Amino acid sequence: MRILGISAFYHDAAAALINDGEIKAAAQEERFTRKKHDASFPLNAIRFCLKDTATSIDSLDALVFYDKPMLKFERLLETYYGFAPRGLASFVTSIPVWLKEKVFLKKLIYDKLKDIEPYNKKKLKLLFTEHHLSHAASAYYPSGFDHAAIITVDGVGEWATASLSVGDRNTIKIIKELRFPHSLGLLYSAFTYYLGFRVNSGEYKLMGLAPYGIPDSDNVRKYYQLIKDHLVDIREDGSIWLNQRYFSYSTGLRMVNDKKWKKLFGLERRLPETEIKQQHCDMAYAIQQITEEIMRAMVRHAKDITGADALCLAGGVALNCVANGKILQDNLFKKIYIQPAAGDAGGAIGAALAAYHIFFGKPYIPLNTDMMKGSFLGPAYSNKEVEQMTSKYNASYLFFDDYNKLAEKTAQLIAEGKVVGWFQGRMEFGPRALGNRSILGDARNKEMQKKLNLKIKYRESFRPFAPAVLAEDNSNYFNLDISSPYMLLVAGVKENIRKPLPDNYFQLPLMQRLYVERSEIPAVTHIDLSARIQTVHKETNLRFWLLLQAFKKLTGCGILVNTSFNVRGEPIVCSPEDAYQCFMRTEMDYLIINDFLFDKQQQPQWKEEKDWKKLFVLD
Amino acid sequence: MDFLRDFWHYMKERKKWWLIPIIIIFILLGLLIVISSGSAIAPFIYTLF
Rounded to a whole number, what is the distance in angstroms from the first to the last CA of chain A? Predict the structure, then answer.
């Protein structure tokens, strides 16, 4: 039974194809269109899924959309009605879009599919799942657990902003929901906006900024208390009530009421791309603390009322790996699974799986292994296709017949301090590059963070990098004794590899504090001595694992800096051509695509008519 | 037609009958906005407000 799941029209559009409950292919539309967070109908992603699995639209048993547009429209109208006459500007902006497109979503989907291939409309079964059920299914079914509590938290779906459900064999029963406008995701996004980052994309920057706040400082205490006294009421079960007097997202085109926030916090909204001051970091620290508090309360409550041993997490807030790390430390559940594509893109997988197991009633056979296959579900390119790309650009390369030799050579280059673009096999599904579309560097190199941020990625210098570590060596470097294959858990760097901090560490200006050498792996040790860990497993990514082994053999260290293969504002590269372009535009030293090695010094001069940086909107 | 059938199913399921007049007014208002944006009859509609 073949089912295609799609998500579109709100955030990250994506498509996923499952066959008899097994995830066969999945990809985000942004990777093909080269527009970050592209929300348009995922034509290219669907084409890829169909081609990769040799499926025609006519042979699909169902096509499932990841939420229910009528319920969303109901929420929209009830909200306008409830807040009227406030919200007229928002109404005038959003209603035309709804009346022209979103209300007639069925027709839109049927019509768009015609652009892919001719098909019999009457034969196609079109289904719609609830948004949070899609998220819940995306975490539960791939987890391999046969019974689990499932928590989903995001901005908003139809009405729900968070849900607690129980997965039992092939069923998912929703027990509780938190409803709009009270939303942890929107609370976090409100601070993302106020601190000068883009909503729906800059949340992870806020998370990265938070550790720069000074713990227990007067500022942090003040912000923390003000948020709790005026913005959010946290209940024992982790549900929240947001004081709408301070927020504008229900009726306006902004997240918050800037004037009221300025009066409350005594701090003006930071404008994008302006200087980051200590107060901004302290505010980020305070909201991160509160987010963790809420998430931990939700998890405690889930344990109390379900008694389950396993926990599954999904929804955009589940990408908050710092909060996930704290949940893990609380040790309430024996097993935790977090969907790697926890945001809306993953809803495509969840929608398809929910239809298969719940609508069609097909059995679920928990294998106790992760069914996401390392999240390597996207397109792969053959050596022949790479060669075609090299002809187009007249690129110079070395070809390696023996992969071990390529791994040894790459390890040697990285150990010499070179930055390497690494492109292998199937592209990752979800927001993280996990070793198939990555930029790699030496984690021991104290200049590496600066170099990667400023010369390769062209992004803000405060942002941390993640380590990819051999799964076997994980506990030698980090205070984490379980695997973290999807970079979704943050844990402390082991005490024995930390370096003593200067006494005035917290008094140092931001950038000076950043460049203090904090451990033996400074490029991946964040300002608070934590790391966002990716454990690399032989079973899911043999080539990357062998590269780490080669690096360890050479240096004694089984860790590399792993960051996504893109520049700021650009989606992660998809094809060899995207990779080569990114390589030539930046100060990356080497590029490896499959078995080809490209040396920057040997390439023909790179010329572009237009300023390529203008191609990508800064995120 | 698909839309009307779905709308009827939605109403039967949700039973939010009190929403009908609001939906009708909002849809009419919305349609007015859609029609008025960039159409030839826009000047006549503006005079209505």
Answer: 39
